[in-house]
Amino acid sequence: MSGNKFATRVAVTIVALAAVSSAAGAADFDWKKFQGKTVTFLANNNPVSQALLTYKGDFEKLTGMTLKVDGYQEQQMRQRLVTVMNAHSDEVDVFMTLPSREGQQFAAAGWYGDLSAMAKDEAAKDYDYAGLSQALLKAGTFNGKLTSMPMNIEGPIFYYRTDIFKKCGVDKPATIKDVEAAAQKIKACDPTITPFVSRGLKPALAYTFSNMLHNIGGSYMANGKSNLCSPQSKEALDTYSRLLRDYGPPGVVNYSFQQISALYRTGRAAMSFESSNELRTVMEGGERLKDTGLAPFPAGEAGQVPTAIGWGMAVSAYSKQQDAAWYFVQWATSPEIQKRMAVQGIAPPRPAVANDPEYRKWIDEEPVRKQWQAALDVLATKGSSEVGYPIVANPESRDFIGQAVQDLVLKQKTVDQACADADKGLDALIAQK
Amino acid sequence: MAYAANAVTPDRQRAELVALSAPAVAFTLAMIAFPVVYTVWLGFHAFSSTGTQSFVGLGNYSKLVADNEFWHGLWVTLALYVLSLVLQLLLGTWLALLLFHAKRLPGVVRSLFISPFMMPPVVAGLMWLVILDPSIGAANYILQRMGLPPSDWLASPIWVIPTVAMIDTWQWAPYVALIILGGLQSLPPSVYEAAQIDGASAFKTFRRITLPLLLPTIVTATILRSVDLLRFFDIIYITTQGGPGNASNTLNIYGFRVGFEFFNIGYASALMLTLTAIVFGVVLAFNRLRGAVAW
Q: What domain range is B286 assigned to?
């Protein structure tokens, strides 16, 4: 064997070994293990699932499985889930869930499959479990059982019109008091503009109100009892309702994200406190692209404690093919798919994806996107996922919070009456097992 | 003889008919009976927020009697029912008379008159939500152009019930009109000829002849609308979700939220069975009335 031939063989061997070892991550994992199976996914027809399902074909090609999507609007999806789960049916394999809302309830009812072992032992090497937001993983863990994998991170953020602020001589608010002062100035400066808008619809407002409550230093519970009548919680109720009543649009008690985004997008509101997910809707048409500033909601006495939640993907406890279902969950929450979803405006629950060059390029295209990402970074690091009471009956607790705020917006009760009535109902709810 | 041996006797024919129709009848009965029986069964059980169930007998019904939200929901349901029904019968009758007498009305105009009830309630609800939006809706714009103060419409605890009744009337008065128009077209012309010969005025003819003869048709329309109105759901769910506060929280909306948002299926079943009993009672009462006014 000549020296040249030997050198060539050594080089080829080294290259081949390097190639094999670099491909090992993908090769180690048998994506085709459940080829031919059909996984049923109960989806909330929101921007998160819409972005994900753009790549449905890729999943089917990768795994050889068929993905059957059962999509509904949020409330109808829950309605379907309740029916399926109460019947202990295996019709649904994977479903979308909001751990901050129904996590405790569904976990206590035994509807979630346990993902703890699968997430660690049955994942592709490039899945990077540790790269997922630990706060969101914690929010989806009940009694030591991991019940869902995070799909996105979201929370209410503060949208404001830089042009109106400039025209009216208003600085970007640094505190909640500044927000009210800015609203007052804008009301006097341009009466045709709605100074401030946020959620007023009873079942929906806990999402934004919780952020204000925590910023002011209030809490939902203390010593196992409802705590809405504490001085800080009363201040939060008073401030939130006053902002809506004195500076919000007429009919704000029926406002949820659709109305808020429509009002802001059409240029009729100067400040909006609404979900980070609404960025795409608000920027539709491009009218607000250049005159909008974004930030986490300004600080209160307790600083900035933004609300940070996320949709999760859970495997049904009644699914007869939890292992195949897990393949879909891990594909959907993998770094690659979450990167692809991120450039469609779905904030990734993986800090590493936020640093991905392709994503950074998309972010750097518009200053407003940079501010959006900066706000999301604050949500990810300082966020609290407490929206409503941390009890099993969380969805019902949100109704009492909403009622108290609406009573104040409509001037039907004083703050003391509203919080006392809410506390009474909530204490009864807390006592329920 | 052979013919006589093969002849189908009435008894055998009856037996065959029973045998052939039995599967269909059994299936239909099962489809009706199973959900009812299951709901009754659910109504006797309490479901905790975690999904565990326990037999409570009439516990859900005694809870219901002490539940302020139930009584409030019943009041809202009845207020909405009475207001909407009166408006729809008055407007429907007027529209039917207009269509009946305006012989030369083009077909397109007639179709337009009756088109709202063909619209899906979701579309109608969303459309009115936009029109009645206090900030960007057309309704307040029109009021202001007329020099009138703007209204909060669906966001006002006082105006929400009349506003929802107005939306439902817009959608369903044409349906009532269509039923009454059918009744008008079947009235015997001889009675009108006699009235004309006697020199009766148009108003007197309407009050003494048309209205009494139309009563059975009006009662039929009342029954059909009662069933829908007492179970009022879609428009409210789309526009207010029972708000502001609880101002438009009908029994049906309340039951839905208890069952599907708060997951208390047992109590929701008790609420829905109570509502069903109310609907049944009202229909029975109007059915008797229809018998009394028949001619």
A: 66-293
Cis status of the peptide bond prior to B212, with omega within 30 of 0? no
What ipTM was assigned to the predicted interfaces of this complex?
A: 0.73
Residues in A closer than 8 angstroms to B234, CB to CB, are none
Structure tokens at A285: 């048409």
Q: Are B114 and B171 in contact (CB under 8 A)?
A: no
Answer whether residue B108 shows pLDDT above 90: no
> Domain total for chain B?
1
- Of A79, A86, A249, which is closest to B134 when you measure between CB atoms? A249
DSSP 8-state assignment for residue B149: P
Number of domains in chain A: 2
Residues near B43 by beta carbon (within 8 Å), at least 6 away in sequence: B60, B61, B266, B269, B270, B273
Q: Nearest CA to CA, how far is A247 from chain B (Å)?
A: 13
Tokens of B262: 């708060």
Residue that the structure tokens 């986490």 belong to:
A296
- Burial pattern B237-257, b for ≥16 Cβ within 10 A else e, equals bbbbbbbbbbbbbbbbbbbbb
**Contact yes or no for B92/B175 (Cβ under 8 A):** yes
Angle at B134 between CA B128 and CA B140, to 5 degrees: 80
User: What confidence tens digit (pLDDT) does each residue in A74-132 have?
Assistant: 888 998 998 899 889 999 999 999 999 999 989 988 999 999 999 988 899 889 999 89
Residue type, A79: Q
Whether residue A294 is found in the same domain as residue A321: no
pLDDT tens, position by position, B273-290: 999 999 999 999 998 988
What whole-number distance in Å separates Cα of residue A270 and Cα of residue A170?
11
What confidence tier does A356 reach under pLDDT thresholds 50, 70, 90?
A: confident
Please provide the distance, in angstroms rounded to a whole number, between the alpha carbons at the two ends of chain A.
81
Helix, strand, coil percent content, chain B, rounded in steps of 5: 75, 0, 20
Q: Which of residues 234-273 of A touch B (CB under 8 A)?
A: 249-254, 259, 262-263, 266, 268
Q: Are strands B45-47 and B53-55 parallel, antiparallel or unpaired?
A: antiparallel
Query: Which of A85, A105, A407 is opposite residue B49, by nearest beta carbon?
Result: A105
- Per-residue pLDDT band at B247 (split at 50, 70, 90): very high
- Full residue range of the structural domain in which residue A291 is found: 156-308+384-431
* Strand-strand pairing, A38-44 and A66-72: parallel
